[in-house]
Description:
Blueprint: E1 5-9, H1 13-21, E2 26-30, H2 45-57, E3 61-66, H3 75-88, E4 92-95, H4 98-107, E5 112-115, H5 124-132, E6 137-139, H6 146-155, E7 161-168, H7 180-185, E8 204-205, E9 213-214, E10 230-232, H8 237-242, E11 247-250, H9 257-276, H10 278-292, E12 300-301, E13 325-336, E14 339-344, E15 348-349, E16 353-357, E17 363-367, E18 370-372, E19 378-379, E20 381-382, E21 388-392, E22 402-406
Parallel strand pairs: 1-2, 1-11, 2-3, 3-4, 4-5, 5-6, 6-7, 7-11, 10-12
Antiparallel strand pairs: 7-10, 8-9, 13-14, 13-22, 14-21, 15-20, 16-17, 16-22, 18-19, 18-21
Helix pairs in contact: 1-2, 1-9, 3-4, 9-10
Amino acid sequence: MRHPELLIPAGSLEVLKIAVVFGADAVYIGGEEFGLRAKAKNFSLKEMEEGIAFAHAHGAKVYVTANIFAHNEDLAEVSGYFEELKQIKPDALIISDPGVYRIAKEVCPEIERHISTQANNTNYGTYLFWHAQGAKRVVSARELSLAEIKEIRNRIPDDMEIETFIHGAMCISYSGRCLLSNYLTGRDANQGACTHPCRWKYSIVEETRPHEYMPVFENERGTYIFNSKDLCMIEHIPELMEAGIDSFKIEGRMKTALYVATVSRTYRKAIDDCMESKDLYLKNLPWYVSQISNCTYRQFTTGFFFGKPSQEAQIYDNNTYLKEYTYLGLVEACIREGVCAISQRNKFSVGEEIEVMKPNGENTAAVVRSIWDEDGNEMESAPHPQQKLSVDLGVPVERYDILRRKEEE
Length: 409
């Protein structure tokens, strides 16, 4: 059985570090150009260099996305961009466009090339084609079942790697190649500027009654007819391993540090437990399930892994994320026992009960005893995001621990 890589998304340098500390084997990031998440914070070259150095120092890898479908005017700049990446040495480039792939092969052949899911990789012939072109890895299309992935594994060389999305948002379109955003807003999803119109609320209008909006289903709220549930395979790690997948990929370069920490920590333990023994994995399964629901999500589905999804895989009545915890801040330094310096994200107050979330799986309950601003002034609450604060929690804390608050149901 292959030991699968845990591949985690990061939309910023801070989140990259959290992903690595909380268990990622590898992190995928986007630069300021040529990736499919233009609205993410993304990385400058300097931040990429720092992130790669941090990951390598902790035994992890960094992959850089360059997976837009390029137009003519993009190609010259792509070449220059790869020249810059060549100097900072990411572990791989994730590419979907054959023209971009050719440039990467010419400019920086020493950097591994991975084929993005955007390239519609649905059969073993496609894998063999890309293997012949020198690609190290292909990301399977989300439309594949486990049986299909297993057959691909049996028909490709052992050194050809399969990467598969196992958790996160599902796109309305085939392998993510969507025209809705471009058509409705002029922002091209295949150039990284998706506005997610698949999450909007829709009604139907009859041609002769242009101002009479009718819900697609009989309720007063309209319908979110394109709005899929989120993929979650935490309860099926053994089946994923048996299929011969080399890399378990999490979606979410737009997600928060709390989300990334939660999925990293939970899947890390699930994979490690399953590698030790299936019995240990099954024993700890309730813990994985309880932990994975701690981050913001819609509702969960197993996608296409066990066959074509039914209508139950869609959400028809709302676009609401479920949220059990609020991200309060990241511990940036320990000042003294029980007192830490944090970069604050959401409001909290003295006297509140919160949790310290640790990379090793522990969650430590704490009460906020005191809060001070950068000038040492004592505060009753911290209402302003991004403030640099000192906080007395009265419990042991370490750098990269995350502070969070459980919300009432």
